[in-house]
Amino acid sequence: LRLLQRGHIPSAVNAAQSLHVDKERKQVTVEAGILLSDLNAQLSSHGLALPILGAVSDVSAAGVIGTGTHNTGIKHGIMATQVVALTLLTASGEILECSKTVNPDLHQAACVHLGCLGIVLTVTFQCVPQFCLQETTFPSTLHEVLDNLESHLKKSEYFRFLWFPHSENVSVIYQNHTNKAPSSSASWLWDYAVGYYLLEFLLWISTFLPFLVPWINRFFFWLLFTGKTENVNLSYKIFNYECRFKQHVQDWAIPIEKTKEALLQLKEILQSSPKVVAHFPVEVRFARGDDILLSPCFQRDSCYINIIMYRPYGKDVPRLDYWLAYEGLMKKLGGRPHWAKAHTCTRRDFEKMYPGFQKFCSIREELDPGGMFLNAYLEKVFY
């Protein structure tokens, strides 16, 4: 560990966890393989934090930026917007540094790199002073939230909501800075016995009786989401949550002004197709626009709409009709898929979605002309 403040204080750490902290600039340089769970704890010991995180932290620094990982908050971009600089080992063996002032075109591409530009060696993140968040959850309706979306976005720095398909039910989640002492509303009975074990059993039953899914969605909203709850903790402990279920997901970013249209049309699709069932929740989040070439938020503030189908006890659930209807709607509204989640898009789609796609391709071809860093997925993206 090196602390850059009035000199250097070296000490040994694991190879994939080397850390340089510049307290004056509030920046941290890490080896790209460090897990965010380790980084969060180490930053906390220096009184620092990342301003935003995804839902899980058992992922590497290079991975979260390379796939465009995001959370929510219209004042905040995706995680890659926190990248001040990075170093890259190219196919030729050359090590390149990039930032907004050094190799700026490469920086614009490499912040969401898809793993195809080279091997990311180090990443420098912009941090903020350590902070606590108060998370407040309360019930509402889909129409209320959509009709008052601007108000909700202003009331909460990190605002998101969960819609329960086949109903009007919504759980609103506000997260804001606070000086309150840590507190928790967690309960093993409600969070695990009911919210996990009972839910998984009922979802498994619904694989034989799909008509139960709308009832399950409404029943669990009534059981778990009709009251107001509050939790306070360090930011990374609020941002992160436990993903208990095996699941299939899609997550697309659409222009923020299309939020209401998208959700009402998705609701109409489900209402007009009784045989198509959708598990709860549809998670709706927001992110500020940026200038990263392959960011789903490139040049526009965005709304992310994440759909989910659980796999109770590992059993696959029919989802094709739901998946295709959702993806068709997202494409119609100018959406761009999350790079780390399911989609059926090809190069032809990405050329239409991303104004900077050709520029990214040119940079990739220059750095890796032989395709050393391509795989079957990336070949579908670029060819």
TrEMBL record:
SUPFAM superfamilies: FAD-binding/transporter-associated domain-like
Transmembrane in keyword set: yes
Source organism, top-level taxon: Eukaryota
GO molecular function annotations of the record: D-arabinono-1,4-lactone oxidase activity; FAD binding; L-gulonolactone oxidase activity
Listed InterPro entries: ALO_C (IPR007173), FAD-bd_PCMH (IPR016166), FAD-bd_PCMH-like_sf (IPR036318), FAD-bd_PCMH_sub2 (IPR016169), FAD_lactone_oxidase-like (IPR010031), Oxid_FAD_bind_N (IPR006094), Sugar_lactone_oxidase (IPR030654), Vanillyl_alc_oxidase_C-sub2 (IPR016171)
Recorded metabolic or biological pathway in which this protein acts: Cofactor biosynthesis; L-ascorbate biosynthesis via UDP-alpha-D-glucuronate pathway; L-ascorbate from UDP-alpha-D-glucuronate: step 4/4
Cofactor(s) of this protein: FAD
Location of the protein in the cell: Membrane; Microsome membrane; Endoplasmic reticulum membrane
Alphabetic keyword roster: Ascorbate biosynthesis, Endoplasmic reticulum, FAD, Flavoprotein, Membrane, Microsome, Oxidoreductase, Transmembrane, Transmembrane helix
A single Gene Ontology CC term: endoplasmic reticulum membrane
Domain FAD-binding PCMH-type: from-to ranges: 1-130
Annotated catalysed reactions: L-gulono-1,4-lactone + O2 = L-ascorbate + H2O2 + H(+)
Residues annotated as transmembrane: 201-225
Cross-referenced Pfam families: ALO (PF04030), FAD_binding_4 (PF01565)
EC number, UniProt record: 1.1.3.8
Any one biological process term the GO annotation gives: L-ascorbic acid biosynthetic process
Membrane topology: Single-pass membrane protein
Primary location group: membrane
Protein family membership: Belongs to the oxygen-dependent FAD-linked oxidoreductase family.
Functional note: Oxidizes L-gulono-1,4-lactone to hydrogen peroxide and L-xylo-hexulonolactone which spontaneously isomerizes to L-ascorbate.
The name this protein goes by in its record: L-gulonolactone oxidase
Species assigned in the record: Varanus komodoensis
